[in-house]
Amino acid sequence: MKNIARRLAAILTLACALAAPGAFANEFSPTQKGAIESIVRDYLLQNPEILRDAYAELERRQAREEANARQRAISENRALLYGSNNHAIAGNPDGKVTLVEFFDYNCGYCKQALPDLIRLVKEQPDLKLVLKDFPVLGQGSVEAAQVAIALRKQLKGEKFFAFHSKLLATRGGIGKAQALAAARDAGADMNQLAKDMEGPEVSATLQESARLADALSLSGTPTYVLGDEVVVGAVGYAQLKARLDNVRKCGKTNCG
Predict the structure, then answer these.
(1) Which end of the chain is more exposed for a tag (fewer CB within 10 A), N or C?
(2) CA 112 to CA 168: how far, in whole Å?
(3) Per-residue pLDDT reduced to its tens digit, 98-149
(4) Hey, what CATH topology would domain 78-250 get?
């Protein structure tokens, strides 16, 4: 395979030389250019797997670059990710390990992942779960987030997580009406909630989450941050638990 890769590299180098506008390309006569183009074409037609392997390698390199960029972003934004006042906390607020979730109340995959998070919080007394509103699925999501953010002034810890879980588990579209109904059922002072929804903390929280998401190159939910890694998607209880166990063990999600 290495020999094939070298041959392909040499052929592609020649092909690039033909395409170059500089003097090097002009060193080849039209006949030579035609011969090289024919060699490149025939070789790739006879060995199409080379293109597949090259594409796979390109994807691996891009994934590594993206992971490295996200690790830098985690390091640079650690204070906001873990220590900001603009997020909700479930589980142990002084936990030794922290799991950050960016979520949207209308995200089907977030709903799917909710039982995993509830189980992790129950089973791991040293876990701090940080909930960051990232409403990317329309105006209803933004309105639900605004209600939830304002409600944090009244409900903390387990009480807020109960509200959060009930609202996220609601069937159908979730917007302001559904969020207010869940807040009322949770025992909120609705007059105070209406005032708090107009406060600066609501927009500041959403803006902060958006800045963090941009720094981490996030585009969807749920997305988790733990240790030195960004984990995209509802990966399931087993994967999250394994990564958290590794963070406890070596400070990273992969101890290998």
Answers:
(1) C
(2) 10
(3) 999 999 999 999 999 999 999 999 999 999 999 999 999 999 999 999 999 9
(4) Glutaredoxin (3.40.30)
Compute the average pLDDT of residues 80-90. Answer: 91
State how far the Cα of 102 lies from the Cα of 212, in Å rounded to an integer: 10
Strand partners, 91: 128
* Angstrom distances, CA of residue 117 to CA of 64, 130, 148: 27, 11, 18
**Cis ω for the linkage preceding 222 (within 30 of 0):** yes
SS3 99: strand
Where do runs of H (alpha helix) occur along the chain? 2-19, 23-26, 30-46, 49-76, 78-83, 108-123, 139-151, 157-168, 176-185, 190-197, 200-215, 237-250
Burial class (CB in 10 A: 0-12, 13-18, 19+), 228: middle
Question: What percent of the chain shows pLDDT beyond 90?
Answer: 63
